[in-house]
Structures
1.
Amino acid sequence: MIKEIKIQLRDDKREIPQDISKVKFGKTFSDHMFLMDYNSKDGWHDARIVPHGPIPIDPGAMVFHYAQEIFEGMKAYRRPDGGVQFFRPYENIKRMARSGERVSMPAMDEDMFMEALRKLVEVDKDWVPSAAGSSLYIRPFMFATDVGLGVHASDSYLFCILTCPVASYYPEGINPIKIMIEDEDVRAVRGGTGFAKCGGNYAASIRASKRASEKGFSQVLWLDGVERKYIEEVGAMNIMFKIDGKIITPALNGSVLPGITRMSSMELLRSWGYEVEERLISVDELMEAAKNGKLEEAWGTGTAAVVSPVGRLTYKGEDFTVQDGGIGPVTQKLYDGLTGIQSGKVEDTFHWMEKLEK
Amino acid sequence: MIKEIKIQLRDDKREIPQDISKVKFGKTFSDHMFLMDYNSKDGWHDARIVPHGPIPIDPGAMVFHYAQEIFEGMKAYRRPDGGVQFFRPYENIKRMARSGERVSMPAMDEDMFMEALRKLVEVDKDWVPSAAGSSLYIRPFMFATDVGLGVHASDSYLFCILTCPVASYYPEGINPIKIMIEDEDVRAVRGGTGFAKCGGNYAASIRASKRASEKGFSQVLWLDGVERKYIEEVGAMNIMFKIDGKIITPALNGSVLPGITRMSSMELLRSWGYEVEERLISVDELMEAAKNGKLEEAWGTGTAAVVSPVGRLTYKGEDFTVQDGGIGPVTQKLYDGLTGIQSGKVEDTFHWMEKLEK
């Protein structure tokens, strides 16, 4: 439990977007943010909800130099009864602790974290949109605030939660995306930070994504950093394939992000009777399946997009169309299944949802 | 050329440390800092020198989430004649541009960058210490300032230069350090960002350094991320060995930082007639040489420490003493040679030094 969360409401309320479909992902922030400080002497302290806005930070703070920073991405949904619910928040809380361990940052008590999430969303409850496919995107993050240029773990950190009302991550909705298999840059390697949601992984990915975007692709598909032959993940998502009737997704080998939508998708698919394999899958195996017509479907899974069908794959200049560039039946069923549970329109038999109202 | 650098001097001057040996590395900042903004529309603009201190930054700024941030480390020295000189500043300027290219950040015109360095050090000239081994450490860095949670290159950046009077990086001075060869965590991989001075590489390194420090080691020695068998670099330095009369340093393979002290050391050593090899060197070769008594010397090179003798190496629990734990003759000669040129006590036959006074 947090001793006390001080709340300072803003006087100049921002305008809540009326048409959520016009809101660009992660660009419109709710009125308030949660902040909490840490140092090794006092532990977590000074929990507060304040108007979202700039805060004074010394340019000598370690975060600007050594990227000791981690984050999470999660969502809260407006139920048909008007209430609000979180999708598997404790999974994000646990993952943030694992990310922190990799880059020597302190974990927060799980109940304390959940309390912060509840209180902040409660304060900005009106910002949770209700249109189909919309949600409140929640971004908890933490960064090193020690001022100094020596390279070592910071002693002090700022923990922050921002929230953004969002429609769908991809402006085109659940339309199939085109992805390019990246064979030059590497995002992560076993032993590195690939499994952690830390900033450096994303900085490493930007150049390839930019090049792919310039060529008309939505995302890149990363290969492993050791052999450059095994499929790892897409820019902002995990990846799944339906090959010859079976569903295959890259195993968590240390450099792949352990996605919560990935995990949930596997649980849901298995509950429907699909065979799901987590294993190494080489780009050669994938290309072979595509050539032989055995690659039936491909989709990405992630918090932002939930499920994104992949309509086209390109590798070393060779182009493959998946499911005739359309949305496959399993992809569609998975999207409907997940978003149904998230929005409260389908019964939550997995007990994934955590209501805002205790 | 920068159109105009606005200068706002501080009223409350800080106290310049009298005894530089008591100053902890990177913890004491000079009075002022240089700031300059970038966006794609206006390019670089609003160059200014202002009192060093916190600046308001939105927590939604991309730097806190995706670590789009790069930095440099360089030094200015007080000459015996009282003047001030920079050590190979254009090499740092060029490297920062290469780092930026890897993480999709804009470069700055070289002369503009040099002008900023000159003007800032000129303003805080009194902060350049004169004691033996001391210098003004200069930290140019740049980070993404776009506010938004989409993962892509930021459109806007803040470029900043901080300076710190420093003694020696290691409190023990040029005393030999103990290093541990890391066989669990990986810092960088070919295709990744290892050659760039970007924050993510350092965040990835902190846990191993902390574990090594808890076991009594100063630094870790990294192995390559692909085969985990080739020597790459030490935490904050490149590494060189003298084996059987020859000097060997890991080749720049994409995951090793192209150190400016490394490059300068090789030039100096070759000018003295030493054979210097840049090549792959496996940990097995190194251990073999240590066992056979052929590992004559080992040292790290870097801006902060210049040259650090390695007195002990540990790998998988096996311990090797180098040069009886003392300072080898080549290590000492290299340290004296480099610091002699840097401080202006030895003739700069390489034309490495750039005087502050034009």
Note: The longest strand of chain A covers residues 156-166.
2.
Amino acid sequence: MRISALATATGLSVATIKFYLREGLLHPGVATSATQASYDDAHVRRLRLIRSLIGSVGLSVQQARAILDLVDEPGDDLYATLGRAVSALPPTVEPPRDDDPDPFPRAREALESLGQVFDPRFAAVAQLESALAAADAAGMPISAERLSAYGARLRDIAQYDLDRMPDDPHAAVEYTVLGTAVYEPVILALRRLAHQDVAARRGLGR
Amino acid sequence: MRISALATATGLSVATIKFYLREGLLHPGVATSATQASYDDAHVRRLRLIRSLIGSVGLSVQQARAILDLVDEPGDDLYATLGRAVSALPPTVEPPRDDDPDPFPRAREALESLGQVFDPRFAAVAQLESALAAADAAGMPISAERLSAYGARLRDIAQYDLDRMPDDPHAAVEYTVLGTAVYEPVILALRRLAHQDVAARRGLGR
């Protein structure tokens, strides 16, 4: 199909599609003349994925490109690929200095108290440190009890996720990378809605 | 203290503090002359809170102001205040049209299957609809089983949160509004780290 038909099929403007082509998020079509190219269903699927990462998940073009690059060229090590995916997602954190023996002491203590294996250079450790500091600054520090309550439920969710990882290596990477990006907004929306449900049942407001 | 001492106490530049004063996030100091004002510990605490909302939680200045306005002027209805807080937080979603009897059918079905009470105009319903659509577009639709697995754990977390809500009405609003904003990054970081823990124990990579 031509770019105009691709626009109709995806509900995007031709200008937006050209922008994603220029930015390298969408692979080029097959050239049919000096000024025209032909696109297929793979382009439609890719554009839907781009839109979901930028529109619904809320990633920047640069973050979406980093995630799509990992899906396209995952490398051999699933563990390292997951690490790169997490680095590409918000919140953006500074990597630790190489010579700092204990760059994220609060996150380390929290993870030790949960008994969790972790790589101190994994971006989520810095993200946890930053999140714990923000809770302190808001006057709502995360107690050991709250950490343990949250941690147990999120570990259940992680077990569920890993139990359903596809066997095929390429599919596993896609599941890991996209699942980190795409399921997080579901989890946040569900938590907000669970608050509403519990509050309503207890007769708070309304 | 003068603004220069406030800058030293918070690690922020005088220009940044003046910006937050202009934007109305920080309340003015007590004028001591035509060009100087005096600030106190309440300003230090407020600046730490502003920094945590903008820096760690990743809110825009506009979103942080909306959250701070709710903490400052919460109104009487805790339920409605929580609704406004959720509307102010990302992801930004369009409110439903008044004449649309079923604007978010997938979210409605999901919440009905979880047996949860919900207000269809609560922003998190639109956020859930958008998140479910993004998962579809990524080729990773949320199954009924996954929804139920996530939903049960997030409801446990919501129960925990509500059980610890302060009795004092002002403190309860602060807990509700700031807790929604500040605890979410903790939850996302913990989920990412739980994935790493479970993956490492199963010998994936490393």
Note: Chain A has a mean pLDDT of 89.
